[in-house]
Amino acid sequence: MERVRLLGVIRAGVFWRLGGMFVSDRRLGVVGIVVENREAVPALNRILSDHADLIIGRMGVPCREREVSVIALIVDGTTDALGSLTGRLGALRGVQVKSALASKR
């Protein structure tokens, strides 16, 4: 049995080891965000900026007649990183978050 010695720390889902690297479990998915409180938008944008390395694409649609905005994110990251993103977003008052991740890793 080969003894593997990790040389670094997790960084963007990649582990470095002697003789090469291997990628940890990353998942592809979508995060749906409904914003009912416009005052939460600056904090929401800060959180998205903090997790920019996870976000592949972003689409936002304002529904002015309902005074609601909907944001869809396409994401790729570890379940821990994606949980951090959705948890922080869901803690904002007036923001609802749902996510769906592909079962393939």
List the helices and strands and how they pair.
Blueprint: E1 14-17, E2 20-23, E3 27-35, H1 41-50, E4 55-63, E5 68-77, H2 79-90, E6 95-101
Antiparallel strand pairs: 1-2, 3-5, 3-6, 4-5
Keywords for this structure?
four-stranded antiparallel beta sheet, Alpha-Beta Plaits, 105 residues, 2 helices, disordered N terminus, 21% helix, alpha+beta, 6 strands, two-stranded antiparallel ribbon
Fold and architecture overview:
The chain is an alpha+beta fold. It has one domain: ACT-like. Chain A, domain 2 (Alpha-Beta Plaits, 2-Layer Sandwich). It has 2 helices and 6 strands; from the N terminus they run E-E-E-H-E-E-H-E. The strands form 2 sheets. A 4-stranded antiparallel sheet has the order 4-5-3-6, covered by helices on one side. The two termini are 25 Å apart.
Give a quick summary of the entry:
This protein is of the alpha+beta class and 105 residues long.
- CATH structural class: Alpha Beta
State the distance separating the first and last CA atoms.
25 Å
- Overall domain count: 1
Low-pLDDT windows of residues: 1-22
| CATH homologous superfamily title | ACT-like. Chain A, domain 2
Per CATH, which architecture? 2-Layer Sandwich
Rg, Cα atoms, Å: 17 Å
Strand content: 35-45%
SSE run: EEEHEEHE
Put simply, the count of helices is: 2
| Mean pLDDT level | 83
Task: Count every beta strand, where a strand is a DSSP E run of 2 or more residues.
Answer: 6
Biggest beta sheet summary: 4 strands, antiparallel
* CATH topology label: Alpha-Beta Plaits
Q: Indicate the percent of residues in helices.
A: 10-25%
Helix/strand-derived category reads alpha+beta
